[in-house]
Batch of 2 targets.
Target 1
Amino acid sequence: MSETSDTVVPRASVFAGLRLTWTAMIAGSILLFWLVLALFGPWIAPHGEAEIISGQTFAPLGEGGLLGTDKLGRDVLSRLIYGVRTTLLLALVTTVVSFAFGVTLGFAAAILKGWFDIVVSRIVEAFMAFPSTLLALVIIGAFGTSITVLVLTVGLVLSTSVFRVSRALGYDIGVMDFVEAARARGEGTWWILTREILPNCMAPLIAEFGLRFTFSILFLSGLSFLGLGIQEPAADWGLMVQENVGGLFLGSSAALIPAACIASLTVSMNLLVDWFQQRQQGETVLEKIDQ
Amino acid sequence: MLRIISTRLAQGLLTLLLASIIIFSATEILPGDVAEAILGQSRTEEALAALREEMGLNRPAIVRYFDWLGGMVQGDLGTSLATKRPVADMIENRMWNTLRLALLAAAISVPLSVALGLWSAMRAGGRVDKTLAMTTLALIAVPEFFIGLILMKVFAVELRWFSATANTRPYFDFSENFRALALPVATLSFAVLAHMMRMTRSSVINIFTSPYMEMAALKGLPKRRLVVRHALPNALSPILTVIALNLSYMVSGVIIVETIFGVPGLTRLLVDGVTLRDIPLIQACAMIFGAVYILLNLLADILSIMANPRLRYPK
Amino acid sequence: MNDIITIKNLKIEGRPPGGEYVSIVKDLSLNVRKGEVLALIGESGSGKSTISLAAMGFARPGCRIAGGEVWLNGRNIMALSPRERHALRGDEVSYVAQSAAASFNPALRIGKQVIEAPLWHGVGDAAALTATTVELYRKLDLPNPETVGQKFPHQVSGGQLQRLMAAMAMSCGPDLLILDEPTTALDVTTQIEVLKAFKDIIRDQGTAAIYVTHDLAVVAQVADRILVLKNGEMVEEGSTDQILHNPQHEYTRTLMAAVRPAPHLVDHVRASAAQATVVSVRNVTAGYGALTILSDVSVDVRAASVVGVIGESGCGKSTLARVVAGLTPLRAGKIMLDGQVAAPNLNDRPRAALKDCQIVFQMADTALNPRQRINDILGRPLEFYQGLKGSARADRVGDLLELVDLPRNFASRYPGELSGGQKQRINLARALAADPKVILCDEVTSALDTVVAAGVIELLKSLKDKLGVAYMFISHDLSTVASFADEVVVLYAGRVVEQGPSKAVFSPPFHPYTKLLLSSVPEMRQGWLEGVADTSEAKAASAGSVVIGAKGCPFSNRCALAIVGTCEKTAPPIRELPGRLQIACHLPAAQLPLT
């Protein structure tokens, strides 16, 4: 070979350490902490989920329970520990539902194209013509509040965004030359989807999953806060905020603690996704002017 | 260009129509019907049949849909099941409260977020940019009610600077109005500020990678001119889209804010409607919000089309 | 010392996303005197562009100037503050980029952008500057010099935009002009007018210039001195005459050797007409949506032969390959593979037909799935077409790698771990894995450096001899096609204007477009540009631009010999000439251009 000037790119060092930033590390630890609580909560919690432990309602921190009591005199700490399981599990199921809808339809639209793509895209567009909360409210208004309705509704609402992302990914990668090469070879749709397209979509799809998961926690807790989500006596963080808002004026932090917990969960998730996407935007032209 | 705009207008109308179909079918088809909802637990078969007859529920869904749509177009929003009052009257009282909240929040958050976004983009990679990036990333993930409750706890309960209820009265002077509205408007602005700012920044940064930005930089122009004269006109379209998206996203923010601060607004009405399953009320509110959303997006698109020289001056 | 610029011991480092800084330019020095044009030549990755920008004290995002001095007009600009240094850009030094289409801000009027730099640097007021630029437009031979400044970039053609960018760079009256591959993105027939305009304006204003290019023939036209670069280091420097005719360094000689002689000087392959036809394209019309790209195209490829398809960007040559492969359905006509009519859509073709006709795409970077190992990329067609599995498959993958001159152990690598030339070989090996009768090569060497491309062409030749495979070789590079193809098809605006055996196509009589194409290929001879730019056909060609879907002859608006009233109205007849040559032209055979 006379390729004197043909330089070889060195092996990409993707796995040469995860290059964890300190923010990613903290966010990861917080998530891990909540996950452990969700798994072993019932064995850790000092009291039962709906057990009334004190005659004093809205007891301050340290009195009654470690974190005080709520509007019925239940232990805030115990409800918090039980709540993490409900919150996480529900968000997870919802996100999975939205991915099942969104990814399937999105890739099908990108690969089959034609009338299928047009019809599905139009319908999704019409769904997206509503603010997502509004759409969920209308559906819940019609079907009532039950866990199934909640999961399916929020899953459906979130799936519009997943659909758009997967369809765009499918289209972008579907026109790459290596997919064309597979088509020219005579490969079937299934092969092209699973072997050529999907492996090249994993990173953005994982990031999207993280974002949807965050959003689904926010969405569900927002509905709970409005009294349209999980119903009592189950412990859910959003619901706990709603139950105890009144205590705010009595100096109780029973509403603020679960709200802060939700924030810790979603902020950590967001930071982790941001780290994963490694959107370390390169330098810009403007920076170079200053050098 | 006029043709593109009129096509876009027609698309907007079509989406509105599709939206009305979705609203109607979501609220009318399952489970049971309005008659069951009205009579609730105490229903008898005879009473149901009579009510159905009275309300015209025996007619086919498609007829009822067009009936309903026709009413909507003429401003007849139906009669509330819960209060037996015309929905239009109920909404009229509340609309102004919601609109005022949203407009005030938009007037604060839009210029602020675009300015911060541009500033951040100009300092890309610098300390200002990194701090803002981290703050907004966290802010996006915080639930609106958390922001609202914290603001309320600090400024209304502890410091007592502002009012915890956003109830304004016609006889309020400016400072009283300010005390009442400061917290809900601030909460609402926070809810959309971070997202708008990040998107403004990334739209502008995206433009920075194009060769014409390098060309402009190599002309020795200062940064401010590069950003304002060269990058901004090209980033206008994505920024407009993001603004429209966030203004309509405010709807969900408004719902929370009205609940926390007890504002007697339109979204509160909707939530009550959902709790009481007051179908005509839900339909009317949903259509109003849907229309606003579609209108905002339409506006953003038309402005982007008008700002694009390729469409303004064809070859 | 009347040096405008002197660079001493320049060091530049670059950082891949997320990686560490590595050295790109090591200890480079150069100088340019007033009125002199210095060419920086080298292959991709030689750092030539980076160095030229460093003359403005500028490093692209991801790069940094790590050391050295840059003396501009007698002061070291690296010792200035960033602000002072930035103030010199667009005042004392200005820059012409590769693509004008991308370098003009689409949202601003051209005139505003042209006078922006001098206006900002306080050279004059807007009215005076506009008046000066109109003069500049006139000198650059731009049509409508008074009004062109009012237009937006998208309203002006590519060649004109490139000249407007020269006006933009010259408007501030710079002492030093940096031209970074300013004609590379243009078609050869457009390149001449732009090159001529650049050269004249530099001479006229007496500006010193740094001209960056990979094209030695272009360098021969514009440069006074040449600096040859390799991997960020200077290999050789000398006068244009000395470098072109008496290169001292081994690497310079390699570069010179890889340049192919002009098409008519090549020893042509002798076509043998006896072989069976493997691909036959009959009166095919095809396009996308409302756009018709190909109209009434007929081409034959015989077994173990090479048919070269040449034409400029947008002429439909890639679409032709896609139509044959069944990727783009045709609208009229038919495709015959191995004597059988092939279905227009590849989903309807039997696997054996797919196997016989393989396509190789231009960009090896995107043609290979980055998530598959070479073993899977080459193994899949073996399994798919021949049912090979396990060790039989692995052995055959190894054989294929050896066939394209790559080591067997490459099977375990990912495409990202290979060089551009190696990837293109894998791309080719994947087509060979099917054991096809014909391979459609779509610009397979265009993205490669000349030396690497020459290696790939040699490989293609040896494979043809070894395996008896035929190629439809699509390229815009006439010299490559001339040296390699048995038969040649010339496409213009989606129609065949001339076809026949290579020797016949590249020797007279010519179709007027073929003649323009041939005379536009830059030659290493100094002074070639002046000779060719003044010819009547070059002037006629620069007057119009390509029109797709014309009623009559598509070339009539750019043809010096067009018969007014006939050519633009009726489609030309196909003239059968001796030696199986076909020319689609209204001119009688005797009046076709001979030189």
Target 2
Amino acid sequence: MNTSATALSLPRSATTTPATAVGGGWIGTTLLALAVAAVLGPFAWILTASFKYQIAIYSGEWPFTPTLSNYAEVLFGRRSDFVGNVVNSLIVASASTALVLVVGTLAAYSLQRFRWPVWVSAGFLGWTLVFHMIPVMTLIGPWYVAFRELGLYDTRIALILTHVTINLPMTVWLMRAFFRELPPEIEEAALVDGCRPLEAFRRVTLPLVIPGLIASGILAFIFSWNEFPVALSLTSRDLATVPVAIARFAQQYEIQHSQMAAASIVSTIPAVILMALGQRFIVRGLTLGAVK
Amino acid sequence: MRENSSLTLVLNRTFRHWSLLPAVALFVALTIYPVANLFRMSVSTIEFAQAGEAWTFTPLRNLALLRADEVVPAAVRNTLIFVVAAVAIEMVLGLALAIIVAGAARGKGLIRTVMILPILVPPVAIGSIWKLLYNYDFGIFNQTLAALHLPPVNWLGSTSLALWSVVIVDVWHWVPFVFLILFAAVEALPVDVLEAARVDGATRWQLLRRVMLPLLRPAIVVALLFRTILAFKVFDEVFLLTSGGPGTSTELVTLHLYKVFFDQNQLGYGSLLSLALIAAIVAFLLVGRQAVRLARP
């Protein structure tokens, strides 16, 4: 066979990547194109469906006459609350992101910078890990009972607080990874120069972890915007978020498929905007900062 | 310039303590207290009346409900099949894709960007998109089959096929995640080690099997662990696609839990199920931690 021969004859130039040894050039490029098509295909299909009249979806006609009526009906239709759903989602996602950044960054800094007894730091980090791993559905029962007792059931406050809690493990672990990369000498120098601890944190350390704050903020916003089970269980019709609204579309007796497609496309807008900002942060966030 | 109010003094002196306090308070109030409450709820029957909720202590009733609940074995079985099948396919496809695409001449930046999309898009939207793709009458799959003069397939309505249709959606959703982790690891492989093996006459297969895979092992374990844990949490897409049907053929533990809480209004029995699920996840975590330790070179 010529496999070993090809492997041997590969040029040992600086441009050779480690994997050219296994993946051939054109095979790699072909597969790459296929993978991109496989990911984008369903989105493309749904995007065209969102511009079709219901009847054109059923008949599968091509080419079809594009229409904006689905978007108009979803966004401005008299029976649709979708704009209200978007506003709810934006409020909840923004507020919970701001809160989780404050709480999570302080906690991460505290754990990284101060010498806490091991049972405090290990206990805290261990519990965030366990909480991050268990399905959120297991806690919805007690949340439901507690928020009813406090009169917070079916309020944005309940949703914001739960979303902060859900995103806190990721924020703490991600920010901790960023703080860990800072040499402690920088802050020590500030303290020697007479800076108070709080000031040193605010003026010296915090500006250096702005990339981390941006990454955590983006992820927390996206996860809050996407969050479904809690929003489904703790809110009624008026406070429904975008995912809950889409689920209601799908559960109607007579499904309006074209409007469902349009609403789904609208719900992906934040993800599409933030997609360009880099996979590094997203993978790190999803693995609690475990992967660089 | 610097305020010397007593408040800033106190804040500075106690910064160490209050910096961790908000996070701890939030966790105690919204995770530790609820878990503690689960124990109390799991031995109770909770009913909602006009005046408020009425709790009665009925530990045996919830256990009896668990024993009589025929959906639980089906949900556990489906969840295990779903997790094992989806994660296995995702790991194999993600690894193969990462290794082969790393040799591509161009487009690596493009694929990194595109692969983020399924991870960031709302899972509910993914469920809704695939519900349309799978549609019996006009979905893309049955349209394609019709164009090939083949009979249509009932992707989500057949008891034997529905779970696998759900697995396919999960594979589409999460292969990109596995790919991104492993692609970064493949790109970071030490070139000189691979070169040395190649110069020594290693075939492509030997290079892959004996050099690359061992070097990639830590990244593979991280991807495997996180995928497995996320797979157990799956809810949104399946809620949209099938809601557990037809029958109980795609019923998963999280879906069943939701139905017990909010369709059957069994808060007490639901709490018992929640505790069992948490115990299972913690057990898995302990085993997984050991596996990571063993995988470290």
